[in-house]
Specification:
Radius of gyration: 22 Å
Number of strands: 35
Helix content: 10-25%
Amino acid sequence: MRDGLMMAGAAALLLAATGAQAQSTNSFPAKVCDVREYGAGGTRIWFDTEAFQKAIDACASAGGGTVRVTRGEYLIGPIWLKSNIRLEIQKGAEVLAGTDAALFPHGERGGVINVDGAENVAIVGEGLVDGQGQVWWERIRAVWRAIPDFATNGQARQQQKDERPRLVWINKSKNVLFEGLRFENSPSFHLVINNSDYITINKVRITAPAHAPNTDAIDPMNTRHVVITNNVISVGDDIVAIKSNGPDERYPDAVSSDILIANNTILEGRGICIGSGAGGGVQRVRVENNNFEGSMYGLRIKSMRGKGGTIKDVVFKNNTMKDVETPLVFTSYYEYRPLDLASAEKQLQPGGFILGNQIWPGPTDPVQPFVHDKTPDMSGIVVDGVTATGADLAGIVTGLPEKPIGITLKNIKITAKKGLLVRNAEVLTQGVAIQSADKTPFRPEAGGLVKAAK
């Protein structure tokens, strides 16, 4: 255990020292292609997709440069950026996604703005990219309502095919920069980065209503060298969700790694997360100096049997929270509850509980076989410096009976109605003060151990 903590500390120091090297590196030719010169009208009535793509293609054919979007309201279907293209959406310019599903045949494997197999790309400016997601949210709710056991089976809802596009889809690309823009109301996830390297997301604003379903802000999937800094985020689902959806022989240690998330302002949302998919492994992640206010969760690692993998060398450093419902969630159980609360409560095992839209089993959950790249395996997790006020539940640390969680809590100050639940986990503490209204700062259950770090 102590060796794991030392490794985590060394990894965190290394990541902090090399954070600049994790960022994208971008440089573009001076050429400018204005979308209006290629036929864009900016009327919000007629589509400007073709004009946007012509400007992109012309600029790329000339060796690259800036595709400029000036003041106006531009309605588009999917566009595809290419290597050495800087898409500049200026102040007063609004790029709006069309709402006809036929425009997006790739569904969740594509976006309104796409980068596929490209290098040296930037999406920048002071303008707006609006997914007009309200139409899509009602469509998916209608799909869910059509499921026979919609109210009682959360898993059935999750398995239902979802054809909503992402707002931005990055795939198999390198050196991609986001800076300055507003991204709003995505049909589903806002910025999705898949199987890519060297991504910087800096000084953007990502917003959607708290009720907007599945509107994650930033999802790095199977991706390495990511820097997420100085952003303002308020959405209806995860703030950041780092995922690795299966092993890859090119990255035997971890498919997702070397990720820095720092100095962000977080309002509505469900936390800075790792998971739920982690089958390819996640390592060397640092989350620091973020300010949360009013979110459902704060810092979160979530996985489940069948989708788990090795998660290690993760450091959460100096994060502050106000009125966050549950500041800390580290769990190897991640199962959607039935939508109908009465039905969910009927499914509860003795000692089980419901939190948000998840359901947890009781402390007598039986041991199952450990399966590599399937069973959640979390170790070397360090939370160093959290100040949280106004919480409902200080946190949850729930591992599996076949694979407990190892975590260290240092310099923690939390005020909450209930204390920290610990089950199938070893929690080492140093300078931890949890003031709970129930007078029980720690609530150890089966396999739960809380002890002072040496």
